[in-house]
Write a structure and sequence with these properties.
The protein is mainly alpha-helical. About 75% of the residues lie in helices and about 5% in strands. The protein has two domains: about 1-260, no CATH class; about 280-485, no CATH class. Strands 1-2 form a two-stranded antiparallel ribbon.
Length: about 475
Amino acid sequence: MTANTALILTLLTPLLGAVLIALTGRWPNLRETVTMVTALSLFALVIRVLIGLNAGEEIGVELFEVMSGVGIAFNTEPLSILFAMIASGLWVVTSVYAFGYMRGTNEINQTRFYVCFAIALFGAMGVAFSANLLTLFIFYEVLTISTYPLVTHKGDAKAKAGGRTYLGILMTTSIVFLLPAVIWVYAVAGTLDFVPGGILEGNLPAGSATLLLLLFLFGVAKAAVMPVHKWLPAAMVAPTPVSALLHAVAVVKAGVFTLTKVVIYIFGTDYLANVPYESIAVYMAGFTVVAASCIALRQTNIKRLLAYSTIGQLSYIVMATMALAPFSEIGAAIHIAAHAFGKITLFFTAGAIYVASKKTEVTQLNGIGWRMPYTMAAFAVGALSMIGVPPTAGFVSKWFIIAGAFQLDNYFVLVVLILSTALNAAYFLPIIFNAFFKPEDVKLKEHGEAPVSMVLALCVTASLTLLFFFFNGPVLDLETQLVGGMP
């Protein structure tokens, strides 16, 4: 199989899987087997594309031309293969987790849940491998629409309200801001292709580029830069597997991935460095990091705390990307992986706690570490990664972001990192301490760990969070290609 064939199959496999899942819905065991086979097949195909990229194969497919110089086309490069590997690989783990969660909570409409999950991964693969802005925009919208039924899965008034906020903000920002930005790029450059070094230099005056940058910043609301962030906490009404993969990995990472692609392959870092007031994006992302961390500090619901933590962590990536230092660009790419491993672990633990004990509040976790030792140990690993403590994945990415700040003497970025690290520690460390060193306030009926499949999944992602600290070389080698080699 050629890498080009594998590339096309990464799009077709989730769609075929969705159809087969729907057809096998009456037989839960068969339906879940189809889900797992589909997830494993997709991951294997993405690995084949990675092998082709590393071997220097010519990878790129244009399905058809939409207008002069622009078609529905796909290719790959270091950033896209990283996103695809993370989304497809963690779909495998999340599927294992979801089997235990959906059965453990007796969720309704389980077949629809798995079908929409597969379609969402189709959207994520389309975003990852898009060769131009038009293709990316289309699949960005597919990802939004396909995840709406997952957000509103429970079907109650709270879920419907959360879904309206989710869909309203994401669709409005993409139509009002992102689509005009895409049209503007085509009008001035005559192309929408992602090209190393960008396509705007010589085609757009630097003064106008500031407005275009802001259109992208607010148009890509999946990156959750304030004030277009409220969809993310609203989406926490979804079942935990949705929160874990789609709102800790696929959906939110599609946002920061899109912004990073735009900076590197549409604007170009050299051109953007000469754009007046470009640093406004750095300041807005930095404000979001600190503000979201302050809000998280006041949350009592576990999933809402994790939601605001996610908003802050996403803006690490945006801030590092917009800082335009070579090391910070590498750090931004690495943080896509580091945050994915750590945050999906935290969401997995939140779901496991709910399934095993029905606890949803931070104040209910006193002493739970001894009832659920594997779950809370995994929580500790994920939390330490969010803080940026070695030996976790979060330390690696923060190290590069800090190095990038020193490259440009950007003290604003350094101050934001110091403040946010302290705030992250302030709301995560007490949870760990209370879970293991405080007695239970109210003794509930005896309970232990969640179903085995859920515990297995969260142990795997916690292990990945630790292993990435020691074995990040392949990812680092791949992502240094974004800046033409190690600075």
